[in-house]
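Re: [help] complex structure
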Amino acid sequence: MKYIQSLQNPQVKQWKKLLTKKERDRSGTFLVEGFHLVEEALKQKEQVLEIIVSEKIGIPPSLDAGETPIFMVTEEISNVLAETETTQGIYAVCRQPNVNVGLDDAKTFLLIDAVQDPGNLGTMIRTADAAGIDAVIVGKGSVDIYNSKVLRSAQGSHFHLPIRRGDLHEWTSILKEKNIPVYGTALEGARAYTDISNNDTFALIVGNEGSGVNKDLLDNTTENLYIPIYGKSESLNVAVATGILLYYLKKPI
Amino acid sequence: MKYIQSLQNPQVKQWKKLLTKKERDRSGTFLVEGFHLVEEALKQKEQVLEIIVSEKIGIPPSLDAGETPIFMVTEEISNVLAETETTQGIYAVCRQPNVNVGLDDAKTFLLIDAVQDPGNLGTMIRTADAAGIDAVIVGKGSVDIYNSKVLRSAQGSHFHLPIRRGDLHEWTSILKEKNIPVYGTALEGARAYTDISNNDTFALIVGNEGSGVNKDLLDNTTENLYIPIYGKSESLNVAVATGILLYYLKKPI
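Output below.
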């Protein structure tokens, strides 16, 4: 175990850079914060490069880090890395997974178009995981999948299923060629979701909080669905809508 | 229209106090922020006591305030009232609705036990509205229903259906006496929600983000339900779970 006390330490500077998408992309790594996420990451040890622990909390006795290097740091350094107000003082630097693994066999997909709120994106990833969806494809205009708030809201689901960035136009074509029905979500020119029966294989496209799924995408889907509004609200939150649709479309195991 | 320039103005001090639950309860009023919520409030003019507009934005031409008094204030005063980082500079002081109206005829209920995140509570209220639920009862230990972030996440649904605080034990007894089935949500000792058929009348209890619905409550329900987890996530977000269950249990109109 190494002990780092200086904010000027090059390792600290590198960790700090991981708070930016640019450096996460360049290095192919990302930083998770908190016990739960560090534990989830350590379930596959090869994906964890380094563990960082604040000297204020010390190494938790239950931490099963295997051969992973552990760095003890001052509270000051820990606070520089923290993205929560009351940090638990434990972090892991993780390798971005090879997102092509498992994609060839995937039968159910969630395609996410330009969802900007990190809490929404993380909750949608968590929901796709819970519903047993095989893969999540995140299109342009969405918040970064390794943003700290996305990671936190997803509660570890980043380590459970392939999540990758991709061009949703291309994915729609690829999936349709494979005879996987692609359902868009729209308020107009769409069928009630309850008209569709559940299925072993499908892709669902959900979209931006304000403007919904891009029109060009909707023009190329197999079918577009809407969720009826029985009361007076104008719409549903996108993560809630995703949950209703995925749990309806997915064939119970 | 009155013009207020001083932060020391008693009216400004009173508005500022509405940022606290204590003063909202004492005065029976609450403050909403932003065009959308002010417009939703003005759909029933008698519930709006005052409108506050920052001189920086001026009165929007589309604003249909009727006889409601409008106060123009400095940007400084507006910023004191703002709970968002980029405020739209428009507010309304609203009367807390008489929450007993409509309750006698209500057939579908959402009961919320100790949900602490204001974004979750607001999204759940919005979801109940969308699903056409007749009333929302919020139990002890939950964040205040008139908290600014709850209001924002609910996107106006506070003005669409009765939302009231209440003792969920008492409500469970009352509803069961009326032959309304009360469904709890639990991870253990529960049936898959898909075993239940949809119904014209029901109450659903959902609970705290970490610990779920209180055990004493679960012991007194008609039946407890769970949502199967098909993947590797441990649970669903409570607002997403609420959406899945309400849209499943609710009989389409």
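Chain B touches chain A through 39 residues (CB under 8 Å).
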